[in-house]
UniProtKB/TrEMBL annotation:
All residue ranges annotated as the DUF3298 domain in the record: 205-283
Gene3D superfamilies: Fervidobacterium nodosum Rt17-B1 like, Heat-shock cognate protein, ATPase
Source organism per UniProt: Pseudoflavonifractor capillosus
Name of this protein: DUF3298 and DUF4163 domain-containing protein
Keywords: Membrane, Transmembrane, Transmembrane helix
Amino acid sequence: MNETFQAAKARYQSVEIPPELDFAVAAALREGERRRRRLRRRGGTLASLAACCASFVLLVNASPAFASAVYQVPVLGDLARVVTVTEYSIADEERLIDVRMPAVEDTGNTDLEQRINTEIQTRIDAILAEAQARAEETRAAFVATGGNPDEFIPVTISVDYEVKCQSSQYLSFVVLKTETKASAYTELFCYNIDLETGRELTLQDMLGPDYKEIANQVIREEIARRSQDPDNVYFDGTDGIEGFQSITADQRFYINGNGNPVVIFEKYEIAPGYMGQQEFEIPVPQA
């Protein structure tokens, strides 16, 4: 065991930090030092730890080469299964675009990885193409109705991702697309992978054949509980807008740190816009 660890340690220490990240790492360390001085003895350890963690996450996300090398270290491999493979910005008179694209690796199923990564690439390409077309149409309409081209506010598009669960059993992450003009609109794409079988999971896989009934009951009870707060409003049909009825066969969800599916309803689906995105954790039935 000690031999394995020492070999892993040596391999990790041999990883070369990309030169272009020197400045970013130094900045993170300087920030840690500033926090250390502010918090003095009590906060020093936390600030230093935060700086180190920030540096590691930055390296893994910003450098596929560094992340690939980290995968070879058994001690750290479980921390780096989703990495940023592409990150870029576009700014012109019609649009402001920021993209951070993830890729899945080290699942033990290369076919699955290729399919998911290709799907993500294709999906993001389509999102950007559609956004470009809308931005051109919006600007053209603005100018055609007498607007000053110099006063046109570009459409803002952000594509990012969040890792929701990363364990020895599950890998779950969400790709988020946010488009902002007069208001913000967010669209989500969820990926839930069983690392033991190497395949994507469904709600039925996690909750069993009665998954709809199980999820619907939890959601109805939680809506009733949240509605006790007068500031929380859900559609219930009284204003001609149908409220929650049932989840669908392709209901969006992610897996949280507890290993439970979390069902997602986007803004306006089951509640007014001010309520934002609604999420409901569905406990996995005990065998």
